[in-house]
Structure formats: structure tokens, C-alpha cells
Amino acid sequence: MNQTVRLALGVLLLSAVQAPAQETETPKEPVVIPDPQVFVTQHSGTFNGVVVRYTARAGETYLLDEDGKPKASIFSFAYTKTVPGDPTRRPVMFIWNGGPGSASLWLHMGTFGPQRVAVPSDAQDAGAPPYPLVDNPLTLLDVTDLVFIDPVGTGFSRPLGEHEGSEFWGLSEDAASVAEFIQQWITENGRWNSPKFLAGESFGTTRAAAVADLLEGRKSISLNGIVMISQALDYTGSTPVDDNLVSYITYLPTMAATAFYHGKVSPEEGDLEAFLEQAREFAAVELAPALIKGSTLDEQDRARIRDRLAYFTGLDPAYIERADLRVTGTRFVKELLRDQGLTVGRLDSRYTRDDIDDTADSPESDAASDAISSAFAATLNHYMRDQLEVTMDRPYKPSGRLGRDWNWRPVPEGSYWEPTYVNVARRLSNALRRNSALRVLVASGYYDFATPFYDAEYTFGRHGILADRVEYTFYEAGHMMYVHEPSLEQFMADVRRFIVEASS
After folding, report:
1. How far apart are CA 331 and CA 380, in angstroms?
2. Integer Cα distance of 335 and 331 in angstroms
3. Mean pLDDT calculated for residue range 370-390
4. Helix 453-460 and helix 252-261: axis angle, to 10°?
5. Which residues make beta-bridge pairs with 59?
6. For residue 279, is pLDDT > 90?
7. Is 66 helix (H, G, I), strand (E, B) or coil?
8. Are 135 and 60 a contacting pair, CB within 8 Å?
9. d(CA 117, CA 135)
10. Within 13 Å and on the Cβ side, how many CA atoms surround 1?
11. What is the pLDDT confidence band of residue 13, given thresholds at 50, 70 and 90?
12. What is the distance between the alpha carbons of residues 448 and 251, in angstroms, rounded to a whole number?
């Protein structure tokens, strides 16, 4: 037998030996997904002077894939009034926070929930536990049911089976999953004919515009109203970076409000509202044209703009000159109180902190977040176990920290797209044009450096948004205006009125 024949025979014998081993490989075990966990409790409270008996349902809702298998668990907290008969004429509001990657605990424990955490109203540090968990007579259960939604990757919500987080972590993907949850919730609870509202904060307003577009369009679910808290629809006006011309305009009134609060300016008008109206006028009529002219601005006009900027911001004219008349919001929060060794907050510039590095051009951390975050996390976890009887086998994530993994593409993968600032404003415009009864309430804080209040006016004044459907409210607080007691009271009164009017 020659060598070639022996080699061929050897290959055949080896294949024959290997074949049985391949046929007896252990099949892959299927992924076992447990049943959704749900915790139901009964409660009673007095809200807006009305005694309300209500059911709290904290639990998982499974979204299904095309094969009918669970693809994601969305955890929600639903508070529904316990009433006999048909509840379909009672409004329901779906509520979430932003991030992307934030759970709903901020709006849950700060404003809309039947109980809330009481943090200092005067922008002081909430300190260490125990934190006060108090009844919230301002909540809206007298006029609407409330459903707090934690998107996938936040709170207890997560992908299931062989599905990955990337299927839900994106501008379009996130909106689709939340819209799917709403459709499923109103179906399971028989609430298709109830007046419906959305309420979102920060990125939650980005989500709200996209969800409204999906509901009003593909899903044929009409809304009565949307509450936009610290809106973020067109990110051009809320991104304070070099060379973003619009941001120098939209942030100027917030700088003026902050300088006023900290006593760094002596306005001709002693009233904050009048001073801010001056700041708006200066930003649009004088500052914008000057910045457009750039280096062609003549010396006399440049000096006048520099001095007016100093008047509104409380900054040294020499600093403004060195900044080439372009002071970003990030640098302002570090510069305003530099002489005191303090940095003001980004989410709420009433707050201050003492950074280690007093020479830096930007803050080391956010004074507002540092002051209150632990109080919100601690009280929600306590409230869930103590009153809602929630016992899950995994920790609740206040923040999923999904920003780095987020897909901001507004078009499908493979389609051409040149990166731009995020902008979902036209999706809101689409929803308004599909539904002639849809109304929008835009709530903004004067001391918000994350989503400046003048940007709300700038954004809603363009993009085809129907002005007669939009109402603005402003508060002497920051991004989370509800941590300031007087602002909380006014905000809740404004939202309650909005719901009653839009439901009738």
C-alpha cells in the first residue's frame, strides 16, 4: 500500500472515530425565565384635600419578542384609585426620568409619589441618614392614576433570555420599548379609553417626544397632554461647548439668574423677573448678532457687549475679554464664586461646593447631585420594602450609567447619517399635528445649567411646534425644581390644573 493510500485511509478512519462523538454532544440548555414578580398593596391618603383609597402595584411587565418569548422586564410602580365600577374615564399619567440611564426614583420620591423625601429647600446638603420620608398631600392621585416606569437597564428592569441591553439602549430603541409597555399596560388594565398623559424629565422629555410620536402614529393611541420637565428636545441649546454659538445665547439668562441669586449683580431692576426679561432681550437682540460678527465686531461695540455681559453675569470684564465674549456654562459655574473658593451646581446653581482645585476651569462634581442623591436612593429603597413590600433578588439601580453604550443614531444601522446634535422636536410637532387636542406643559427652573430655561423658549419657538398648544411655567429653582418647597407647591398646582383642563 503506497503512502497516499495509507494517508487517505487514515483520514477516513479518523472521521469514523470522530463522528459518534459529534452526534452525542449535549444540547444547549434552554434559558429558563421565571414568572414576573408583582407586589400589590392597599393604601389610603389625603391628596389636595381629597381622601383617596388606592392600590399600589409594583412589579415586572414582560415585553415579548417576535416569537412570543420574553425579551425584557420593565419594572413599574402603578398607583390606581380604588373605585367601584368602570375606571375608564379616569386619567392615567405615565412618568419617567431621564439620563439616559436614570430610573424614575427622582420624580417618584421627589414630586408625584404619595410619599416623598424631604430634602432641605434652601439648597443645603441633605447630610447623612436617616432622611425624612413624609406624606405627600400634593400628589395627583385625586385627579389621575400614576404609573412610574423604569426603562430597561434602570431600577429592576433588564433584558431577558438571550436578548441584550443594546436592543433597548438607544434613542429609537428606548422609545419603542416604552411605547410598547404603555400599549401593553392600557390593554391589560382596560384603560384604552382613559385620558392619557406623559410626564418626563430632562432626557425623559427627549423620550416623551419620541414616544408620543410612536403612540399617535403607529399605535393609534391618542394622548391628552405631555408634561415636559426641564425639556431637552433640541440639544443645540443645552450643550455648552466651544464653538456652539447657540449655547452662548441660551445660557445667558441662566447665568443672570444665578448671579442674581448669589448677589453678584446689582440690576437696574431689583426684581428677578424683570432682570431676566432684560437678559432674554440682550441675548437675542444684542449678544447673538455680536457673536455672529465675531472678529469683525468693531472695538466700540465689543466693549459695550463685554460690559453688558459683565452686568448680567457678575463676571469680571477682563475675564469676559479673555474668553472672547464667549463664556460657556461649564466655565461660568466654576468662575462665578471663584473668589470664595466655591463652585455652583450644574443641576441647580443655588447649591455650592468646595472643590479641591480652585484653579480649574470646570467643576470636579455637581454640587446639587452630591447634596441630594443619597437621600433619594435611601428613601426609595426603604419605602419599597417597608410600605410596598417589594422584595427583589437584585439591587435597584438609580442609574444604569448607559450613556457610553447609548445609540444616538436616529436612523437604522447601515443608513447614512452625519452626526449632529440630538433633536426630536419635530417628532413632538408630528404628534401635535396628528392630534388636535394634545397639549404640552413646559416646566423650567431658572437655576438649571443642564437644560437652561431660555432654551425651552428657543426650542419651542421653532421646529414647527404649534405655539397655541404649548404652555410655559418657570420656577425659582433648578433642574429638579421640586426640591425647592415653594416651587414644588406651584409646580404641582400647575400640573393638576393642566390635567383637569386637558381631560375635560
Report:
1. 34
2. 6
3. 97
4. 150
5. 38, 76
6. yes
7. coil
8. no
9. 9
10. 7
11. very low
12. 9
Region 256-265: mean pLDDT is: 97
Are the beta carbons of 209 and 410 closer than 8 angstroms? no
d(CA 264, CA 335): 12
Give the Cα separation of 47 and 368 in Å (integer).
29
Domains of the chain: 38-236+372-503 (3.40.50.1820), 239-366 (no CATH)
CA dihedral 261→265→268→269, nearest 10 degrees, is 0
3-state secondary structure of 48: coil
C-alpha cell at 221: 393611541
Residue 77: closest CA among 47, 106, 48, 117:
106
What pLDDT was estimated at residue 502?
A: 97
Instruction: Identify the three-state secondary structure at position 132.
Output: coil
346, 308, 355: which is closest to 450 by C-alpha?
346
Neighbours of 337 (CB within 10 A): 18
Residue type, 8: A
Extract the runs of DSSP E, i.e. beta strands, from 18-88.
Answer: 38-47, 50-64, 70-81
Closest CA to 55 of 388, 385, 391, 384: 388
> Taking a C-beta distance cutoff of 8 angstroms, is the pair 465, 205 a contact?
no
DSSP per residue over 91-114, as a string?
-EEEEE--TTTB-THHHIIIIISS
Residue type for 249, please?
I
Q: Which residue has the cell 426609595?
A: 380
User: Of 240, 276, 242, 274, whose CA–CA distance to 257 is shortest?
Assistant: 276
pTM over 0.90: yes
Whether 443 and 230 have beta carbons less than 8 Å apart is answered as yes
| pLDDT tens-digit series, residues 185-216 | 999 999 999 999 999 999 999 999 999 999 99
Rounded CA-CA distance 273/441 in Å is: 20
Q: Are strands 145-150 and 50-64 parallel, antiparallel or unpaired?
A: unpaired
Gap between the Cα atoms of 408 and 459, Å rounded: 19
Backbone angles phi, psi at 344, to 5 degrees: -90, 160
Q: Report yes or no: 72 and 158 within 8 Å, Cβ to Cβ.
A: yes
Does 30 sit behind a cis peptide bond, omega within 30 degrees of 0 on the bond before it? Answer: no
Mean pLDDT for 216-224 is 96
Distance of CA 8 to the CA centre of its chain: 68
Give 223's contacts (C-beta < 8 A, 6+ positions apart). Answer: 196, 197, 198, 212, 215, 216, 431, 435, 438
The string over 183-198, giving b where at least 16 C-beta atoms fall within 10 Å of a residue's C-beta and e elsewhere, is: bebbeebebeebbbbb
